[in-house]
Amino acid sequence: MIQHVEKVLEFASDDTPATKLAKLQRILSEYRFPQADTVPLLAALLSLPHPLDSPPITVSPQKQKEETEKAPVFTPPWGTHSYLNQLTLNRLGHTDVGAMVEEITGGKTLPAEVMQQIATKTDGVPLFVEELTKMVVESAFVRAVDGRYELTGPLPPLAIPATLQDSLMARLDRPVAVKEVAQLGATIGREFSYALLQAVFPLGTEPLQHGLQQLVGAELVFQRGLPPQTRYTFKHALIQDTAYASLLKSHRQQLHQQIAQVFEQQFTETTETQPELVAHHYTEAGLTEQAVPYWQQAGQRASQRSASAEAISHLRQGLELLLTLLDSPERSQQELGLQIALGAPLMATKGPASPEARQAYARARELCEQLGETPQLFPVLMGLHLVYFVAGEHKTAYGVAEQLLSWLAASNPLLSS
Q1: 50, 86, 335, 339: which could form a disulfide with 364 (CB 3.0–4.6 Å)?
Q2: pTM for the full predicted model
Q3: How far apart are CA 35 and CA 103, in angstroms?
Q4: d(CA 291, CA 226)
Q5: What is the phi-psi region of residue 392: left when phi exceeds 0, alpha when psi lies from -120 to 50, beta otherwise?
Q6: Upstream peptide bond of 207 is cis (omega within 30 degrees of 0)
Q7: What share of residues in the chain are helix, strand, coil (percent, to 5)?
Q8: Phi–psi pair at 221, nearest 5 degrees
Q9: 355-371 per-position pLDDT tens digit
């Protein structure tokens, strides 16, 4: 959602927070949004400063999330009526496959035996029809002659791959620079920026631009904008998967490490606003110690936005990675931070009395005892008190409350009196 809104608002990497806020206000003024309500909500969503001319947001985080979700959501004006029918798209028949192939070839007909293989092996899946047709046209099996394609020789039985992945791999198997650009882009993600690609690509600007032009020309990726603000998107997730799967594991890990380090060194704003990206790349690089703090940061940011499901996912990812490290006070301290951060979103999604929330705070209490008296004991005891109280275990809840008061008195002499 955040990435989509940022695209709509045309945020640039060098925009200041004030510039981004001005863009938000300008775009919203063109629609029928109530400015006083919508601007503060979207500004908070995008980590922008609160508008000076708007009242502060006083609702709970969950209510703020609900109000934010209502603001960009499109509701069809026609509603639900008995005279409206839902259409289900099925696989293409042979006639439609032929029409689609002719559209892709620009009206040039393919030999009958080629058409037969395309129709049979694609099973009417539109993306498969398109990719196989383009692979055939780009291959040496056919040549254009007088408004049609004809075979250059006998058509081998396996000339047209039977699987989409084979077809995509055949189209990606181009000059080295082109393939490396596709592999690097796939390692970054389904969508990637020119600036990030340039910062990591090892062969220089000219091969990079040539590779991107080839991929765009082959319609394997789509381009939006001009360098250095250009962004590229793989046409389909399967194309990204195919390019990524063609990398050796060791090379893949090396690329992930380079991408994570470039984020830290050159894209600090992205590192702050989307720490889960850096966490993902360090995780895939096998660098657990570097990844865990970013998973915690990502979980805390998601929790602040009441994106509880995302927060739980990020924090549990960090906890799973910690299990691969040797036991040490440092690991316990990291786990304590993750368990405390996990408690709030678990309460929000599962309920304060849920076994999951109880387990998170109980484990955090154990860690506090292992590490000695720590400042983190306060939120741990507060969480446990709420867990026991809501569960109806009032005697245990009061015991936790007494421990909390004792800890407060010991940590602050003024309270002891």
Answers
A1: 339
A2: 0.76
A3: 46
A4: 33
A5: left
A6: no
A7: 65, 5, 30
A8: -130, 155
A9: 999 999 999 999 998 88
